[in-house]
Every structure is written in structure tokens, then in C-alpha cells.
Automatic annotation (TrEMBL):
Top EC class, one word: hydrolase
Record's cofactor remark: Binds 2 Zn(2+) ions per subunit.
UniProt family annotation: Belongs to the peptidase M20 family.
Hydrolase as UniProt keyword: yes
Gene3D superfamilies membership: 3.30.70.360, Zn peptidases
Entry binding sites for Zn(2+) 1: 77, 88, 180
Protein name: Hydantoinase/carbamoylase family amidase
Pfam families: Peptidase_M20 (PF01546)
EC number: 3.5.-.-
Residues annotated as binding Zn(2+) 2: 88, 120, 374
Organism, scientific name: Microvirga aerilata
Cofactor dependence: Zn(2+); Mn(2+)
Amino acid sequence: MVEINSTRLLDDLAALRQIGGHGTGVVREAFTATDLEGRRWLARRFAEAGLRPVWDPIGNLFGLPPTGRPLVLIGSHSDTQPEGGWLDGSYGVICGLEIARAAQEAGRPGIAVVSFADEEGTFEPLLGSRVWSGELPFSAILDRTDRNGRRLRDILAGMPELITAEQVSPQLFKAYIEAHIEQGLVLDDADEAIGVVETIVGMQHVEVAVIGDQNHAGTTPMNRRHDAVMGFVAFAHAVDEAFRSEAGPSTVWTFGRVTVSPNATSIVPGRTDAMLQIRDPEQARLNHLAARAVSIAENISAKGAVQIRTQVTAKLPPAPLDATLVSTLASAAERLSPGLWRRMVSGALHDAVPVSRIMPSAMLFVPSIAGRSHCFEEDTRPGDLVQGCTVLGAAVESLLLLSP
Ligand SMILES: [Zn+2]
């Protein structure tokens, strides 16, 4: 029986929280001294738990069981946003560590743990998991710099651990499971303890350029203007109205990176650029909504006040998680938290996205109090942290029993 030690779980979470601790939050950006201190602490904890700490060339840290073929890889990331919470990522890594320990104590050493490098995008979002899963070529990102101008190549060259870095073949693992805080309101609003993620949303970006006529703001009458900001506002409003009636239950859309040129009050603006991001768990709906935005732009352009150019750029397909793993998690949740769990969609991206393209993967969520995350207020009740790990441990135990 894989028996989770709740004190050990909460103590390890509290200890990791101290590294880069900032009030109630944590500042541990990828590849900074505090991030490396945190991951060196993890490496020691892995070793104390009888797991061999292995760093791969991009700086992912694995804890591999000494003997036998690892069966299930459990983990997440331990870096944070520039202002982060104490559980985002760390929860999944420490859950993996606790389940690996508990499984060994139960005589079933088939669990490996991972802390993926730079999930939060200091150099590139999901950097470590995307390189490990082969989606992002190692050589392609070495000359990236962070916002302080540090080059990834130099940072990796300065890490003594990486002198003995080893490739860790994904073939070692039959499955990847990531526990994570929900970072949203669904579970907390419903007073539920567990979310079993069925799909991680896909994403499309529509680049928008609204072209008007730059002119004097004092002398150009209102009925003779071709104002790129007013054109953008009309477009954004029409998109919002259309999407509200055509969206699915999990669709979200956001306008960002809005720039106005020239950005002055005495000039009728000649150009507005923006980016529309759409997220949804279904590819067909993503395609439909992106096409809808393009046709709205064409309709507005046809009226002649402004011209709106669009281009559908980033297309990230949704990541459906493995049906067998999902139902294993679901039955453990129903057994241990009857009536207090649900199947759900993840609107946030996680390391499980790239990993799910190369092996069966699953995710389990615990509630975030008031849905807060990527801020110092981020928190989860201790009982929920323990319950999530217990449910995941029970699910992993049935997987281990299935394939000895
Ligand atoms: Zn995270």
C-alpha cells in the first residue's frame, strides 16, 4: 500500500518555499541563483529518498529509482514567475518526491521524479519539457537571452552539474503525471478537492493591424477621420460580441500587445497593432473562432473607414490527456473524495503539454484559494494539498499493480 506521509509532504513544501521566499510568495526565476539553490536542494532530497539525481543537458533535474525500469514519471517545475506563488510547479515536484518515497517504502520502486527547467519562460515557456520531448531543438535556443541579457549557453556552461549531464531517454517512462494547483476558480467555487484534467487547451493567435490615416487631431473633422484606434475598438467589440454567442463553455479570448502609432493626443492615430489570443479545448472551435475574427476584420474593412489586416500566427493544438490515465485518476478521486471532484479542462499550459505528445500523460488539480496564482497571495489549504497527493498516490499504485 502506497501510504503518503502528509507531514513529510507539507514539510518539504515549506522548506522549498523558504528558498527565494518573499513574504507569502516566492521569487525563484529560472536559472537564477535561487532557482539553482532550490533545485540543488531537490537533488539532495531525491538522493536522501534513494533516487539518483540526474541533470540533463538543458538543466532538467530527474530523480531516478536505482533499480528496475521506472514506470511512471511524476513532476512539474520548481521555477517561478518574477513574482510567484509558493505552490505553482513546486507542488507537482514535491508530490512526485513523496509518492516515489512512499512507493519505495511499499516495496514498489517504480516512480521517477522530475523538475523541468524554465517552465515559466525566462528564456522560453516550457523550455525544459519542450527540449526533452524533442519539440524544441536544444541547439536552437542556446543563444536566447533573458530580460537581463544573460545568454542561456553561458548559464548552462557555468553549471557544474551539467559537466556530468546525461540524456534521460523518454523511453524509460510509460507515463507522465503532473499534479498542479488549478490557478483558477472552478474547484474553489464548487468546494471541490480534486480536478482530473481531460484536456489542456490549445491556442491560436490572430495578429491584427488596423490602418487608418494619420492626421491633425485639432483640424480633422470627426466625419472625415480614419482613426486606427476607433477602428480597433470597433473590431475588438464586434469580436467580443460574436465570440460570446459562438464560444464553448471553456473558450477564453484576450486582446494584448496593443500599440498605437503615433501614440499622441494631438494626432489622429494612423495605425493600431494588437494580438488576439483564443484558447479552447477543441481544435474545430479554435479554427472557427479565428476565422470568425478574420471575417469580422474583412467586414469592417469593406466599410472603408479603416483597413484591418489579420494573420493567424501561433497555432498550438489542444493536448488531450491519456484516457486510461484519466480514468485511473478519476476512480481514485471517486474512491477517496466521493462527490468532491470533477473532470475538467486546463486553461493554463503546463509541462504536460509537450510531454503528452510523446507519452501517455495526465494531470491532477487541487484548488487554488480564490483562484489566485502568479502572485504572492497564491495558496491552497493544507488538507487539499495532502488529498491531491493521496489521490495521485492511489492512482499510481493501481498503475503499478497493473504492470509490475
Ligand atoms: Zn506551473
